[in-house]
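Let us practice reading a record.
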Amino acid sequence: TPWTAAGDLCPFRRPDFPGGVAEIIAAKARRGTPVPWRVSAFSLFQKALMADQDPIFQIQRVYLKEASLEQPNSPAILLEQEQPSVDIQLGVEANPVADGVYEICVTATVQTKIKDKTVFLVEAKQAGIFEIRHLPQDQMGPIMGIACPQIVYPYLRGNVADLIQRAGFPPVHLAEINFQAMYEQQQAQAAGQLPQ
């Protein structure tokens, strides 16, 4: 967006905000809001610009960050006729990468057992890089805890099923997850752990 000079009080002017900072100061004066004499026009301009910025939510990349498969009791356990039990654990984590850029990871651990012996153990972590800017702070948690995992999770499901099938087993399809309920449960647990 081009900027043009607009006098001493308003060092920058936006085409879609024709009055610039000068009008902000004048409007404050009309409302009776005190305006310091040594006011920084640029700081007022920055605040006005930030208030007018649109939210940004963009997917930069989705990728398989980690994957492993173990068959510690093969080949003997493959001859067992008993149906194995399946245990699935999921986790979500968010880490800042740069200003306004975050890595959201969804982790799955799939373990199958016959009695107390492991048939196979799969651990996979699917990650996504998201640019998230100009959102109210109270919306950041739900965005990173609900919206981003919902985007990443289908890729994780596909990779886990493919990895298990390539190991010679029938694919295990992870169930659909209600990340909103999962996030709300985590928030409730965290609130319950806070000292009263």
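A brief commentary: Confidence is low (pLDDT under 50) at residues 1-26, 35-42.
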